[in-house]
Amino acid sequence: MSSTGGPPTATPAQEPPPDPPPDPPPHPASALTPAQSPDPAPAEAPPGGPARIATDLRAALGPLTRRLRTVKPDGELTLSQTSALVLLDRDGPATASELAAREGIRPQSMCTIVGVLAERGLVSRAQDPHDGRRIVVSLTDSGRDGLHGARRERARRLTLAIGEELSPREQEQLAAAIPLLERITRRV
Q1: In the chain, helix, strand, coil percent, each to 5?
Q2: What is the value of pTM for the model shown?
C-alpha cells in the first residue's frame, strides 16, 4: 500500500509537465492574424521584433520617398512620366505597350504619357526596323539629361539632409544599414 501511496505522490510531481500544455493555447492565439484576433499582438511583440521594425521602417521611408519624388527641377515631369523615362534609360527602347506592361497600366495611358514626352523632346518614336507595324520609343539625349538632372537634384537634397541632420556616428550607422535595406528590398 505504501508503494501505492508512493506513486500518487509521484503523479502530482509529474503534473508540472501537464502544466506546459496550458502554455500552448496562448501560442495558437498569438498565431491568429490581426483580422482574426480582436486585440492584435503588437503590444506582445518585442520592441525590436520584425513586425515593429517593419512598421517603423515604412513610417520612416514612406515620407522620405514621397519628399524625394516631389523634387521637380524646371520642366516638371509627373511621376508616371519620370517612371517611363527611367524604364527607357534602364532597359532601352520599347513599345508603348511594353512600357505599359512594365508599369502595370493600360496601353492607352502609356500612349498619352509617351505623347507628352515626345512633344517635350524627351523621347523619340520610330518604326521598328524589324516590324514596321510597331512603334519603338527611345530616350533622347534631352530626356536622359533631364532624368539625370532630376536624380542629381534628389541626390543633392538627400546628401545635404544627411550632412546637416546626422552626426558622424549616425552617418556611419546609416551607411552600415544600407546593405541590410538592399537585402530586404530584394526579398520584398
Answers
A1: 65, 5, 30
A2: 0.50
Q: What is the pLDDT along the chain (188 residues), one digit of tens a residue?
A: 444 444 444 444 444 444 444 443 333 333 334 444 344 444 455 567 889 888 888 888 888 887 777 665 555 788 889 899 999 999 999 999 999 999 999 999 999 999 999 999 999 999 988 888 999 999 999 999 888 887 888 888 899 999 999 999 999 999 999 999 888 888 88
List 136's β-bridge partners, or say none: 126
Give the Cα separation of 7 and 4 in Å (integer): 6
List all residues 6 or more positions away from 166 whose beta carbon is below 8 Å from its beta carbon.
174
Q: How far apart are alpha carbons 144 and 158 in whole angstroms?
A: 21
State how far the Cα of 53 lies from the Cα of 104, in Å rounded to an integer. 29
* Spatial separation of the C-alpha atoms in residues 151 and 164, rounded to whole Å: 20
